[in-house]
Design goal:
Elements (H helix, E strand, L loop, with lengths): L2 H11 L3 E6 L5 E5 L7 E4 L2 E4 H6 L9 E4 L2 E8 L6 E6 L2 E7 L3 E8 L12 H16 L4
Antiparallel strand pairs: 1-2, 1-9, 3-4, 5-6, 6-7, 7-8, 8-9
């Protein structure tokens, strides 16, 4: 499966953004939409580098937030044993991220609402969906 096919599969699951980043070069190998890439920006007096967010230790309980797509997400669950995945949320949606052998795989989904039936009801539902339908099927391949 090509990186573009992975991005399409994630969109079909109900996610609105997906980014796949090479772990050696930090180069995005797949992303949709076009602007769904790691960026650097200022948050007040703090410089945020989203590539550093990927490189940082995901299993540390001291880490309470994950920043990506220009947004700050509260980490609600993580792989405390190996630091391979995390789940985050903010008012309008959810982020899920997983570190595979060769890539980081990040996806964002909107929170379902009265106005929008697209997305998911919870961060756990978003994670369970992508993990069952895609990530568990490619473990060891990417």
């Amino acid at each position: 499966m090509s990186w573009e096919n992975y991005c399409q599969a994630v969109h079909q699951l109900g996610f609105s953004k997906v980014t796949i980043v090479n772990r050696e070069t930090y180069h995005p190998v797949g992303h949709a939409p076009r602007d769904a890439v790691a960026t650097s920006y200022m948050d007040g007096n703090i410089r945020i580098n989203e590539n550093q967010e990927l490189a940082d230790n995901w299993k540390s309980k001291k880490r309470t937030t994950f920043r990506f797509y220009g947004s700050k997400f509260t980490i609600v669950k993580r792989d405390e044993a190996d630091g391979k995945w995390l789940i985050g949320e903010r008012e309008n949606g959810f982020i899920v991220a997983k570190a595979f052998k060769s890539v980081w795989f990040i996806a964002f989904a909107r929170r379902k609402s009265e106005k929008s039936k697209l997305g998911f009801n919870s961060a756990q539902e978003a994670f369970d969906t992508i993990n069952k339908e895609l990530w568990s099927t490619v473990e060891g391949e990417i």
